[in-house]
Write a structure and sequence with these properties.
There is one protein chain. The protein is mainly α. The protein has one domain. A two-stranded antiparallel sheet has the order 1-2. A two-stranded antiparallel sheet has the order 3-4. A hairpin with a 3-residue loop joins strand 3 and strand 4. Helix 6 runs antiparallel to helix 12 and helix 11 packs antiparallel against helix 12.
């Protein structure tokens, strides 16, 4: 009798679960008949071929969602949520820096604390030129004064050093980060959107790489316009070539992951040539070496991020465990933002050095 009761209890549980599944299925069918969209996250094997990119991420995929729902999914949890927010957060950081650059005086103080403190030339100056009192004196500014990208500074009362090259990098970085966020958010809408947005993503990466060359080359070769034009033209042509190459539909597929990574790394490391030239040209100027040290840290960040991107670690080690958080692309995004901010610091150092240097 006891066994019969136990068997009957198990059957009841099974019936209740079956009923719930049937009711859920019926609700979805009714919504479909009424023309309402049913939000469902799919497993990897249920995806169409054009959406299959990483076989180690097994679940929580949005597939062919309407544009409105895909856009609003920025606030829901799926395997692209952190991919969107890691770069959207980076975009917000650079946007804040851009807003601060418009301020002529520190207006972000709150109870004695100024955000501008961290971007002040007064704090960089002792580090940049500890043994050159004359140049250090030129760089002294009011405590807490922010670095303004959009104004100009008169050197020795005769010449103005433009700040627009720094602005070019900030805009390029923001463009890359927002393109990446939009791609991860909206590429699930359709095959056409998938192809378009991943191309946009690669174009954004190329844009940031090219724009990152502008400030250091401009300021390092400010008094050597021929070399400045040569290096800036070369990296621009290389960037255009990269964008045109990556517009080919076939190169957007997972099969060419290594090729894309190699192309971006080649673009980045092409900066070794102008960097070496700048060191030789300005040997003995400590800010050049400090800026170069920042750039080396940036290179480590980018190379490490690409390593995660290509190897698909850690999800390769335990498929399905990192679907929502912790997979390689999210880690790659974090390293990209870290590298961009490090390059921003290098740009401030070399820009201030040029402003404190004698005229050409």
């Amino acid at each position: 009798m006891e066994e019969v009761r136990m068997g009957g209890g198990a059957n009841n549980i099974f019936r209740r679960k079956s009923k719930k599944v049937k009711n859920s299925w019926k609700k979805e069918e009714m919504k479909k008949k009424e023309g309402l969209f049913v939000k469902r996250l799919l497993k990897y094997e249920a995806l169409p071929d054009y959406m299959k990119d990483n076989e180690f991420i097994l679940d929580h995929y949005r597939c062919e969602w309407p544009l409105k729902h895909a856009f609003l999914s920025v606030f829901s949890l799926h395997n692209e949520t952190l991919n969107v927010w890691t770069h959207l957060g980076g975009f917000m950081v650079f946007f804040i820096l851009t807003v601060l650059s418009f301020m002529e005086t520190t207006t972000s103080e709150f109870q004695g604390f100024s955000f501008g403190f961290f971007f002040s030339r007064s704090h960089l100056a002792p580090l940049m030129m500890p043994n050159n009192s004359a140049l250090s004196q030129d760089l002294k500014v009011t405590h807490g004064q922010q670095v303004l990208i959009f104004d100009t500074k008169r050197v020795s009362g005769k010449e103005e050093i433009p700040r627009w090259p720094c602005f070019v990098f900030v805009v390029g970085a923001m463009g890359c980060l927002v393109c990446s966020s939009l791609s991860h958010l909206l590429a699930c809408h359709s095959r056409r959107f998938n192809l378009f947005f991943w191309r946009l993503d690669y174009a954004g990466i190329s844009l940031m790489i090219v724009s990152s060359f502008v400030p250091p080359i401009y300021y390092a070769f400010y008094c050597h316009p021929n070399f400045r034009s040569l290096y800036l033209t070369s990296i621009t042509v290389l960037g255009i070539f990269a964008i045109i190459t990556l517009l080919a539909p076939g190169l957007s597929t997972a099969r060419f992951r290594y090729f894309r990574a190699s192309l971006f790394l080649a673009m980045g490391f092409s900066g070794v040539i102008p960097a070496t030239h700048a060191v030789v040209l300005h040997w003995g100027h400590k800010p050049i070496f400090i800026s170069l040290a920042y750039e080396l840290v940036m290179a480590v960040f980018y190379a490490t991020g690409v390593g995660f991107y290509v190897s698909r670690i850690p999800e390769r080690w335990k498929p399905g465990a990192f679907d929502i958080a912790g997979h390689s692309h999210q880690i790659f995004h974090v390293f990209v933002v870290a590298g961009a901010l490090t390059h921003y610091a290098a740009t401030l150092v070399i820009m201030d050095w040029r402003m404190g240097s004698p005229m050409c």
